[in-house]
Amino acid sequence: MKKLFAIFISLFAAVSMSASEPVVKTGIEVLRDREFRGLVGKRVGLVTNPSGVDHLLNSTVDILYNAPGVELVALYGPEHGVRGDIYAGDHVKDSKDDATGLPVYSLYGATRKPTKEMLQGIDIMVYDIQDVGVRSYTFISTLGLVMEACGELGVEVMVLDRPNPLGGNKIEGCYVEHGFYSFVSQYPIPYVYGLTVGELAVMINEEGMNRGQKGTQEPARCKLTVVPMKGWTRDMLYEDTGLPWVLPSPNIPFKDTPMYYAAAGICGELAGFMNIGIGYTLPFQIFGATWLDPDKLKAKLDSYGLLGISFRTIWYKPFSGSQQGKLVKGLQYFFTDYENARLTDTQFYVMQAVAELYPDKKAFEVISGYGLFDKVCGTDYVRTEFKKRYNVTDIIEYWRKDEEDFRTLSQRYQIY
Question: For a 10 Å CB count at each end of the chain, is N or C smaller?
Answer without folding.
Answer: N
